[in-house]
From TrEMBL, chains A, B:
UniProt keyword Transcription regulation present: yes
Record-annotated HTH lacI-type domain positions: 11-65
Domain of life (superkingdom): Bacteria
Organism: Nonomuraea indica
One Gene Ontology MF term: DNA binding
InterPro entries: Cro/C1-type_HTH, HTH_LacI, LacI/GalR-like_sensor, Lambda_DNA-bd_dom_sf, Peripla_BP_I
Domain HTH cro/C1-type: start-end pairs: 8-55
Source lineage: Bacteria, Bacillati, Actinomycetota, Actinomycetes, Streptosporangiales
Alphabetical list of SMART domains matching this protein: HTH_LACI (SM00354)
Name used for this protein in its record: LacI family DNA-binding transcriptional regulator
Length: 342, 342
DNA sequence: GGAGCTGGTTTGAACGTTCAAAGCGCTTAT
DNA sequence: ATAAGCGCTTTGAACGTTCAAACCAGCTCC
């Protein structure tokens, strides 16, 4: 039993109405439908509103109007040892995009013992939010399935299934990696390897598929090798083995910058110079790679555009009830740097 | 003019009351004060609640009770080129800690043309949140000053002024860097340098002060040099100059892992081997440094404990009206790795 | 045997807003 | 002259919950 502190109440619409000598509803209209007021009244009322610092109580407004102006973002549970370095930038972009439209982002997470779906249900039933923003979408994502059956508004960073709402936005990783392979092929490489992590990120499959499609298209000898997690040691040794073995690749495309760091380390250990003896490219454009020498060729995710598209689609569903007919596939931005060689 | 989609209403307390054959208030009590019900009634009512999937409407509850169970976190505006890599981990910890207590985190940001204080005022006046969680506290932070004068609950990651509420939590960077200097001194180093960034992070001063205190205490020759921003190129050249100049330091303590990456690069360019020719230590324990060779000695921020302490203090203010008498200074965790030398 | 207590439950009001409808003064059409 | 329409404003009700107070039956007390 915690004693709740009595909360002092602020200035209400009634106070403003009295002070301005008009009715409640006129104040409400001044804020929500200003065109209904005579210019002179609007001016006078607005002055009083400003003077008293009146803001409609969010709860009362929500209760009556049924809209919260809040979007829930179920935060992916991060491995504390290796938190997603793009999370900050993604949230940054999402907060900016939603803020512009007058919406705010609520971070949510299932409570201990609660499933993802139950956590969503709780928010829906308690009418706490207007919609959901989902990321890290699995091929057959239970959250998407659940929201689809509920009919509750959501937008997804990552593709949904064909029979689900196409309110998704994704990055065309397949094409981006095909492009990377093209760059490698153009530089004369024949033995090319792809380094994947099997720790279960859904996007890794796309990147690998892009690689396979790329080598096929360019008639190269492609090999895929992978490490089970994100452990630096494993990445380095797996790459070292690969570089020491037969069919030594002269180019490695890593499924993420994080993995590429291991490639740099392994190459150095083998006395190979990146950009001359070994071409390297990756994915994500982590800021940290600015320190790599030579600088890393990579694919940057257009986080800003992704966030804007996601919020735009979500608000369209929430406010207009219009579900997009097709998903939106955004191109990754190729950032070509010396690690590929001349 | 956006057409609002009519929102279908869910199951209300009235529905449950009718179904269970009791009054509204009994349902309310079953959820908020179960001890008031006869065991048998409670059981029966709970069953109906579960069956109908009833959840109290958050807005209605907030309107009447005056409590939102939401904490606002004004997100620091990140440089997109160099987003704070610890942000994800910090939010992770904060969401976990607040979720445990039944609170959620609302990400907020001043709208264009709006000051920080105005953004806070808007949330207070609209009664959207119960309290604020602030980070990146400046020495004389306008947000803290404003909330202090308002008397609105907040907790701060970073120290407040003596005449302000001591609801802060901070990491004892000064002591941590003194410890680092001690480790360096014990290894026989006399010429020690500190690399700072002057891009205005408030904590950098502490780290530098710790360095100065450390060299004084251990009778070392300390030199401080700094770079204006976070640009890798500048960090590397400044360090290279320093390593090539007179009074070449044999140990460098960097104000952050990010800066240490530049030290590694510069040292390599000079043909110096880290751990043998140059001792290096830093601050933050970014996961990425796991790839550095030799591994980097650094100070890890106890994000989990920080978040728990912040949320704990904030909820104490919100729920019990008790403001902490003193701030909480948490020690940084020294992570000693080979970059210091044997 | 009526007053007082106690555990359990119900009742009426209120939280602050917006919606839907009605009202009002004035102009225009019939 | 009356009705209809228009622009602006007000009125009454409702959103779904919790608070404060009232109620009620069963007991105890002297």
């Amino acid at each position: 039993m915690t004693a709740r502190r009595p909360r002092e109440r602020g200035v209400t619409i009634e106070d403003v109405a009295r002070a301005a000598g008009v009715s409640r509803q006129t104040i409400s209209n001044a804020l929500n439908a200003p065109h209904r007021l005579k210019a002179e009244t609007l001016e006078r009322v607005s002055a009083v509103i400003d003077k008293l610092g009146y803001r409609p109580d969010q709860s009362a407004r929500s209760l009556k109007s049924g809209t919260r102006r809040i979007i829930a973002y179920p935060t992916p549970v991060d491995d504390p040892a290796n938190p997603n370095p793009l999370m900050g930038g993604f949230l940054e972009a999402v907060v900016a995009a939603s803020g512009e439209a007058g919406y705010r982002i609520l971070l949510v997470r299932p409570r201990p013992g609660q499933s993802q779906e139950q956590a969503l249900d709780e928010l829906i039933a308690a009418r706490t939010v207007d919609g959901f923003l989902l990321s890290d979408i699995l091929r057959d994502d239970p959250r998407v399935a659940h929201l689809t059956s509920t009919g509750f508004p959501f937008a997804a960073f990552g593709r949904t299934l064909p029979d689900q709402p196409q309110s998704w936005v994704d990055v065309d990783s397949v094409q981006a990696v095909i492009d990377l392979v093209g760059l490698v092929a153009a530089r004369g490489h024949r033995q090319v390897a792809f380094l994947a992590s099997t720790s279960g990120q859904p996007w890794m499959d796309d990147r690998r598929d892009g690689f396979l499609a790329g080598v096929r298209r360019h008639g190269l000898a492609g090999q895929v090798y992978s490490v089970p997690g994100d452990d630096p040691g494993e990445i380095v040794t797996a790459t070292r083995d690969r570089l020491a073995g037969r069919n030594r690749p002269t180019a490695i495309i890593a499924g993420g910058d994080w993995l590429a760091l291991g490639v740099y380390t392994a190459a150095r250990a083998q006395g190979l110079e990146i950009g001359r003896d070994l071409a390297v490219a990756a994915f994500d454009d982590l800021p940290i790679t600015a320190f790599l020498q030579p600088a890393l060729t990579t694919v940057r995710l257009p986080l800003r555009r992704i966030a804007e598209a996601l919020i735009g689609r979500l608000l369209q569903i929430i406010e207009d009830g219009v579900t997009p007919q097709a998903g939106l596939m955004l191109p990754g931005e190729l950032v070509i740097r010396p690690s590929l060689g001349p």
